[in-house]
Amino acid sequence: MGIRLVTTIVGILAIIAILYFLPSWVLAAALCFLSAVSAYELLGATGKLKGHPLMWVACAAAAAVPYCTAYVPFEGSVTMVLFAFGFVAFVMGIFDYTRVTFEKLAIAFMGAFILPYFLSSLLRIYVGAGALGKYYILMPCIAAWVSDIMAYLVGRLMGKHKLAPHVSPKKTVEGAVGGLLGGAAGMCVFGVIMNRCFGVGLGLPTLFLCGILGAAAGQLGDLSMSLIKRNVGIKDYGKLFPGHGGVLDRFDSILFTAPIFELYLIAVQIIA
Fold this sequence. Notes:
The chain is an all-alpha fold. It has 12 helices and 2 strands. The model has no long low-confidence stretch (mean pLDDT 92).
């Protein structure tokens, strides 16, 4: 428990430093790194492509996705990366068909593009929202992590009905409901602070709904990554964050929550 708390404190301090004191390229580099590690965890830790060259190709593609989607002005940049990865992946599949099956090609695509694209919503929010991007990027984090905390507390206090026992035995329906309300409350508090400090005019009813949706997406992300772990028989994806596991253990809820808030900010024209 001690190492988990220390890691949490260090993580919070690192996030504050990256968002508010360091140049923007540090955030981009951090998300490129986390994306590459997530691909490594999905393909290596699960044993699907461990040690195979395609795993490293997927990691390289994953690292390029956040930067290409947020900074490269050429709209076809992601398509180029996708084409290059697909070309190399299928060539490897054709000439190493005993190890690179269709299932592993699909998993490699997920690790190289789908998960990094979801995660890079954070960078697109940061860049697309301009001067206030460093505050709007907190929205998916608040919805996901406040939901996690409230789900844990409510589940411990009054959880009786299992939510998905075959995937995550400790999660309860009561905890899930508490998490949804916690995410919604966190969003409303965020909206009040933003409206008073910056006069941006965020609607609290809409934020409440976004908090519910974001928290639900976060719980789905958590359960989705747990589903994969159960299927392959591992406890954690990695050890990058002592006491917490790997990137996919710590950022599983953010993967699905960040795109929800990116779409919301596009809808209200905060992101052009």
